[in-house]
Design a protein that fits this description.
Layout: H1 2-18, E1 20-23, E2 29-33, H2 35-43, E3 48-52, E4 56-60, E5 64-68, E6 73-83, E7 91-104, E8 109-122, H3 127-145, E9 149-152, H4 155-163, E10 166-174, E11 177-184
Helix pairs in contact: 1-4
Length: 187
C-alpha cells in the first residue's frame, strides 16, 4: 500500500510537469496543454509548400492558433504566398480555418480533424484569376492541414499514464488550452 501511494505521488508530480494537471477525488485525471505550447509545436511543421505541376507554388507559413472553447475547436490564421509561372508576380494572402481534434494512439499525436476553411483571401489578384485560384488554394489548405499533428505526446509524457494504466481520452478546448482526459485503459 505504501509503495502504491508513493508511486501515485511521484506520478502526480510528473503529470504536473506536463502542464496543468487535475486529479479530482474519484474524478477524471487530465492534462492541459497551453496555447503557447501548442503554437510552438505547430510552428515546427511550417512552412509547408505545395505545387500544381510547376505552374503555381503555394507556401503556408506558420499559423497563429486560437482557442475556440465555445465550439470545442481550435482556430488558425495562416499567411500564404502564391508564386509561379502562371502568375505575373508573387501574391500574399491569408486563410482562416478551424478544426476539431482527435487522439491518434499509433503515433501519440493530437491531430486536426473536421477542418473548415472559413475565409481565404489572396491580395491584389485580378478578379478573373481570384475565384479560380482561391478555390484551388482552399483545397490545398484543406489537404495540408487535414490530420496535421497539433501536438505529439512524448514518451516521458506517456510513461506515467502507462504505469497507472491510463490513456488519453476526450479532448476539450478550454480558455486555458487543450485539456486531455486520462481514462482507464481497456482490457
Amino acid at each position: 500500500m505504501r509503495r502504491r501511494r508513493g508511486l501515485l505521488a511521484i506520478g502526480a508530480a510528473l503529470l504536473a510537469g506536463l502542464g496543468a494537471c487535475t486529479t479530482g477525488r474519484g474524478g477524471p485525471r487530465s492534462v492541459t496543454f497551453s496555447l503557447a505550447r501548442l503554437q510552438a509545436t505547430v510552428a515546427e511543421r511550417f512552412p509547408q509548400r505545395y505545387g500544381a505541376q510547376g505552374l503555381i507554388d503555394l507556401a503556408l507559413l506558420p499559423p497563429r492558433l486560437r482557442l475556440l472553447p465555445e465550439s470545442n475547436r481550435l482556430g488558425a490564421q495562416i499567411a500564404l504566398q502564391a508564386t509561379g509561372p502562371l502568375l505575373a508576380r508573387a501574391y500574399t494572402g491569408q486563410a482562416d480555418v478551424d478544426f476539431g481534434l482527435r487522439y491518434e494512439a499509433g503515433d501519440h499525436t493530437l491531430r486536426a480533424t473536421d477542418l473548415r476553411v472559413n475565409a481565404l483571401q489572396l491580395d491584389d489578384l485580378p478578379p478573373r484569376t481570384a475565384q479560380t485560384l482561391q478555390q484551388a488554394v482552399a483545397q490545398w489548405v484543406r489537404q495540408s492541414l487535414r490530420e496535421v499533428a497539433v501536438y505529439r505526446l512524448r514518451e516521458r509524457d506517456l510513461a506515467l499514464a502507462d504505469t497507472l494504466q491510463l490513456q488519453p481520452g476526450q479532448i476539450t478546448v478550454t480558455p486555458e488550452g487543450l485539456r486531455v482526459e486520462l481514462v482507464a485503459r481497456g482490457p
